[in-house]
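>> received
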Amino acid sequence: MPKVKAKRQSVSLDMTAMCDVAFLLLTFFMLTAKFKPEEAVTITPPTSISEKKLPAGDGYLTISVGPTGGIFLGTEDKIAKDAMLERMANRMGISITPEMQKNYNASELVGYPAGAMRQVLGMKPSDVKAQGLLKGIPLDTANNELFLWVSYAKIANPALKVAIKGDANSNYKVFNAIVSTLQDQNINVFQLITSPEGKPK
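>> returned
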């Protein structure tokens, strides 16, 4: 006697729970996303065929040179960044208020003379840029403030590596002065940030 085959039924999945999870994840990422702040100064580095990428993270102290020769300093290492502010403020006799600390943390770069610190940190970073107060860190024989900023960062985190990002139109003399300042602190190894360029055929 032949066996009676059971009728096959298609499997149905309830996707309601999956949609809920997808929307929860989407909402989470939208609310926790950190937008990149507007650049304090626009720098177009020269191109090179190097394929080595600068590792992402907070292990670098970046010295940037603007098109007009202004020098700017930035790091994602919070300990080093806070230490730079604290030591420079103590040197200048400035007491940092919570509002000044908030504006400092919101700024991407340090790029002003230490004497203007009280004025600059009393304003939002967007207002500082709009008023043209980001003129660069002084670097000359009489007043080498870049030396101080770099040394304060390295005291806080000796493992910080240094990277230099220069504009293609900046003066080489400024770059040479930066290298001399680093060598004065026995920093002889640093990275140069460039834009990628295709290898010649």
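>> Residues 47-196 form one domain.
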